[in-house]
Design goal:
- Helices cover about 15% and strands about 35% of the residues.
- It is an alpha+beta fold.
- Strands 1-2-5-4-3 form a five-stranded antiparallel β-sheet.
- A hairpin with a 5-residue loop joins strand 4 and strand 5 (about 40-50).
- The longest helix is centred in the C-terminal third of the chain and has 6 residues, at about 65-70.
- It is globular.
- The model has no long low-confidence stretch (mean pLDDT about 80).
Length: about 80
């Protein structure tokens, strides 16, 4: 998983899979878009107007609660 923020356009992107692939876009709201890849796999989530959506200041911390899942998915817990 990779989370990136573009300050110029105030957009947050959460990439859930590592490999780049062609996706279709599903707009949930004006600010939230899902990228769906092959086999209907959720590839990423884009949040526009991110500061308004999640609040001003620093981005919230990310906490992994299911360590077994994190190990299985080759995610390094903090």
């Amino acid at each position: 998983m990779k989370i990136s923020y573009d300050q110029e356009v105030d957009a947050l992107y959460i990439r859930l899979v590592g490999n780049l692939q062609e996706c279709r876009t599903v707009r949930l709201t004006d600010e939230i878009t899902l990228n769906i890849g092959a086999a209907e796999q959720l590839v990423g989530i884009e949040i526009l107007d991110a500061q308004q959506m999640i609040g001003q200041g620093a981005l919230p911390s990310v906490e992994l609660e299911n360590i077994a899942l994190a190990r299985h998915a080759s995610i390094q817990p903090v």
